[in-house]
Amino acid sequence: MKKRVRNFTAQLIAKSLIWTGALKKAKAKALRGDHILSIYFHKPTKEEFEYVISWLSKNNFNFIDLEDLQEIRLGNKAFPKGAVLITVDDGWGNNEVNMAEVAEKHQVPITIFLATEAIEKGYFWFSIAKKAFAKKIGTPHSEEMKMLPNQERMKIVQSILSQLPNDREAMTLGQIKKINEFNFVNLAAHTHSHPILIQCSDEEAFQEITTSKAKVSEWTGKTITAFAYPNGDYGTRETKILEEQGFLLGFTTKAVPMTPSALDKPYELPRLGFLEGASKEENLCRILGIWKTKKNLTLK
User: Domain limits at 272?
Assistant: First the structure.
């Protein structure tokens, strides 16, 4: 009930942004080359992803990949007009059918950032934490757990695992091997256990980043040069690790368009988030960068 009310309210707000011309203005700015639309997903349905691809294509946007972005950043390519960069966080099992196969079909490049422990074990800690909270077994909500020191969070996760079954939600290694052969799918690093990096010790942060890079490289046979911060949380320590470990690009969840000046900070690149389950109108406002998040309109 709360979700329906939230989505209805958000849809009304989004429609007002469309009716007042805000969406049209934002689209015009992107098409004339003011910025790149850097859009990220988690686990959309096939219909949701296809709608976004179709809408962007029909509205004369074109899709770029990470190699293009790096060339643009270095000045080897001109800053583009109407460019869209698509990334995906975590590595959910349904990403293969709902995103990778769709991207391959429409020849739209996407990059999936993998939390490597989830690929190996099958579960995402924040997902099982939400289930545990819903079952009222006495553990905090996943959003509260993100605020805890990493070791404390890990103890709670282990407690949950001892009480609840954890069905596989992440992609398998077999799926990774399969989509690694796709022409329009790139795989990159998203830490090992998907911790909140700023809650980690120096050693934990280093190991999380380097382990994920090594494992994705091993699975794909490729050099991994891009990284996305879990939950978008990072600091100067994390950007320094990325630079020292040979990463070229680091992605945040700063919900602003990617302007030419944003490329001056390659380890702090912004992304506009798509919200699974929200209305088409709301998500158009989100991916065009005109949606202002309200706390009471956040899906839990």
Answer: 2-121+171-293
Quote the number of domains for the chain: 2
Query: How far are the Cα atoms of 22, 138, 158, 173 from residue 134, in angstroms, in the given order?
Result: 38, 10, 17, 30
Amino acid at 259: T
Which H or E run includes 37?
A: strand 37-41
Distance between CA atoms of 231 and 215, rounded to whole angstroms?
Answer: 21
Indicate if 42 and 9 belong to the same structural domain. yes
As a 3-state breakdown, the chain gives helix, strand, coil percent values, each rounded to 5, of 50, 15, 35
The amino acid that residue 272 corresponds to is L
Residue whose pair of structure tokens reads 């739209």 in the numeric block: 108
Distance from C-alpha of 20 to C-alpha of 38, rounded to nearest angstrom: 24
Its pTM surpasses 0.70: yes
Helix H or strand E encompassing 236 = helix 236-244
* Tens-digit pLDDT profile for residues 82-138: 999 999 999 999 999 999 999 999 999 999 999 999 999 999 999 999 999 999 988
